[in-house]
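Batch job 17 of 40 flagged for manual review because the log was empty.
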Amino acid sequence: MNQNPPEAWKVFQIIAEFVDGFEQLSRIKPAVSLYGSARLSEDHPDYQRAEAIALALSDAGFSVISGGGPGIMEAANKGAFKGKSTSIGLNITLPHEQVSNPYQDISLNFRHFFARKVMFVKYATAYVVMPGGFGTLDELAEILTLVQTGKTRKIPIILINESFWSGLLDWFKNSMLTAGTIAKEDLDLIQICETPDEVLKTIFDYYEHRGFEPSAEEQEILLEL
């Protein structure tokens, strides 16, 4: 006889993940989601750059949301942990790779990628995307799709390390745009930065004439994320 609980009971586990995330993250604004590869070591230049960017964001008053695991996620949490603002880790249960790093003021644990992905988006003032693998591409495609379709508010989407991303961006332009599967303005959703100062300037320039808090209209959009 199958002793596993009925699939319908999983709904309560999913609800619990959303409730816990909403309760803990609703008070950490403004925040920036920063993520990338789990496979880069502490001596890798992109690890060190992620740590420096996270520290600059934290000292500028932004909580930093990352994946809670090793590699770039650890670098992001470490930099934020050293700074003045909150370091948040959205940990995910995986068969391999994901081990929680010790640099988290708020540590949330998820079984479901989709619940975790909502938390990355819902409370983010900006997205900072470091070099990474399939998971990083998944998160990048997610935020681009949500902004493109109006299912979340428009925020800065910043890619770090142009040499890593240039082939993908060329493919967006030369294949997708040429084929008509995206519009020219979709390419404008993405900005490239190299240094912590460039990241801060990009974010502050975007919000220069408005506050970091979502408008009433944007709040309605985020309720249906």
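Reviewer: the log was empty due to a logging misconfiguration, but the result itself is present. The first strand starts at residue 31 and ends at 35. Unflagging and moving on to job 18.
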